[in-house]
């Protein structure tokens, strides 16, 4: 098993690259840690409104169509196999990827498309009360949160949008932002105008409180640990950003302070014949269309690198 192109990750970027690699007659193998392709689409519990040509269907429906397309194009996909290490090839030699199965797969080229995962607060009580008041998606959990007093933690678009979704579902919302709010101006304006949202900036959550269900949050002032308080709530929605799934290859590839991979305009990393695409490269607009475009372009660049055209 030594494909011309080994793609790690079958989210939109990896799937797009795989389909284009097939169309460009490259011998390709896809590795995916999850049971099925789709990546973050499995967490998109609504119809993404900004995808041209896709008029209906939530993320999991689109993910299912990815699986069908890969099968139709006879792209080999190994699911539930996690890449655990990257080995650069010697000089111009082929890189290799170590797998959770103990195998080592050498390939003429590797495309890393491992995306991102949500960040947690990493405070006591959070994991213990997950599913019993601790939520990571107001869209998914809207029915169980309906009518409650909910704290939303985060300062970006997702936190502000989730707060608005929750008040539309009859909730009272306490929105806790650690630093300055980064959400787009339209969301900030709508939050400021919504009488059911209390916005508190400069607040850091230190504990999720509750025994069998969430009863509140312990907080401190972001710049002054001595200033403490409790925010009473029946649930908390955590929207504090994402982190890249790059720990397995960061030791050999250049990356930024948060672990996002550095690539050039041809999707090349700092190791020969290792490329990266999609959210794990911190694109200006992390999104399905950008990941699809990255994957397609990367496949074309890799074909040119392998075959000179
Ligand atoms: C709730 C939510 C709503 C969103 N809404 C929209 C929207 O409306 N419109 C829009 O355009 N975008 C939206 N997005 C963003 C969009 O889903 C992402 O930008 C896109 O999925 C990125 O694709 P990707 O292929 O780069 O990464 P991902 O989708 O993250 O896929 C990466 C894949 O790599 C796999 N993987 C990770 N590590 C390994 C490993 N070591 N070995 C093997 N496999 C591995 C993962 O299991 C995953 O399948 C939303 C995202 C979320 C979470």
Explain this structure to me?
- This protein is elongated.
- The protein has 2 domains: 5-118 and 242-307, FAD/NAD(P)-binding domain (3-Layer(bba) Sandwich), CATH 3.50.50.60; 134-238, FAD/NAD(P)-binding domain (3-Layer(bba) Sandwich), CATH 3.50.50.60.
- Helix 5 links the parallel strand 11 and strand 12.
- With 309 residues, it is an alpha/beta fold.
- 23% of the residues lie in helices and 26% in strands.
- Bound molecules: flavin-adenine dinucleotide (FAD).
- Flavin-adenine dinucleotide is lined by residues 8-14, 31-34, 39-41, 43-44, 48, 50, 82-83, 113-116, 245, 248, 278-279, 286-289, 291.
β-strand number? 18
Strand content: 25-35%
Q: Indicate the CATH topology of the largest domain.
A: FAD/NAD(P)-binding domain
The topology string of helices and strands comes to: EHEHEEEEEEEHEHEHEEEEEEEH
Give the SSE map:
Elements: E1 5-8, H1 12-23, E2 28-32, H2 59-72, E3 77-79, E4 83-87, E5 96-99, E6 104-106, E7 109-112, E8 116-118, E9 134-135, H3 142-145, E10 149-153, H4 157-168, E11 172-177, H5 185-193, E12 197-201, E13 203-209, E14 216-221, E15 224-232, E16 235-238, E17 242-244, E18 274-276, H6 288-307
Parallel strand pairs: 1-2, 1-7, 2-3, 7-18, 9-16, 10-11, 10-16, 11-12
Antiparallel strand pairs: 4-5, 5-6, 8-17, 13-14, 14-15
Helix pairs in contact: 1-2, 1-6, 4-5
Bound molecules: flavin-adenine dinucleotide.
For this entry, give a set of tags.
309 residues, 5-stranded parallel sheet, 18 strands, FAD/NAD(P)-binding domain, alpha/beta, single chain, 6 helices, binds flavin-adenine dinucleotide, 2 domains
């Amino acid at each position: 098993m030594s494909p011309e192109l080994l793609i790690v990750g079958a989210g939109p970027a990896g799937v797009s690259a795989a389909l284009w690699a097939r169309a460009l007659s490259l011998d390709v193998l896809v590795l995916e840690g999850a049971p099925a392709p789709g990546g973050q689409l499995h967490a998109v519990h609504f119809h993404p409104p900004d995808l041209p040509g896709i008029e209906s269907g939530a993320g999991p429906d689109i993910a299912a169509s990815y699986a069908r397309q890969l099968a139709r194009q006879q792209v080999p996909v190994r699911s539930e196999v996690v890449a655990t290490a990257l080995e650069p090839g010697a000089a111009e030699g082929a890189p290799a990827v170590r797998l959770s199965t103990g195998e080592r797969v050498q390939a003429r080229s590797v495309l890393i498309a491992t995306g991102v995962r949500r960040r947690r607060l990493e405070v006591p009580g959070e994991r213990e009360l997950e599913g019993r008041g601790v939520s990571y998606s107001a869209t998914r959990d809207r029915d169980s949160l309906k009518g409650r007093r909910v704290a939303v933690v985060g300062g970006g678009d997702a936190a502000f949008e989730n707060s608005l979704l929750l008040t539309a579902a009859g909730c009272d919302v306490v929105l806790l932002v650690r630093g300055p709010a980064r959400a787009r101006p339209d969301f900030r304006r709508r939050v400021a105008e919504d009488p059911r949202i209390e916005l508190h900036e400069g607040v850091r959550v230190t504990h999720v409180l509750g025994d069998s269900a969430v009863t509140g949050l312990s907080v401190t002032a972001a710049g002054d640990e001595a200033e403490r308080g409790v925010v009473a709530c029946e649930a908390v929605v955590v929207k504090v950003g994402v982190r890249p799934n790059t720990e397995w290859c960061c030791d050999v590839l250049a990356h930024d302070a948060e672990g996002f991979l550095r690539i050039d305009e041809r999707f090349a990393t700092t190791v020969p014949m290792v490329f990266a695409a999609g959210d794990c490269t911190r694109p200006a607009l992390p999104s399905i269309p950008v990941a699809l475009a990255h994957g397609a372009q990367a496949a074309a660049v890799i074909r040119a690198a392998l075959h000179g055209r």
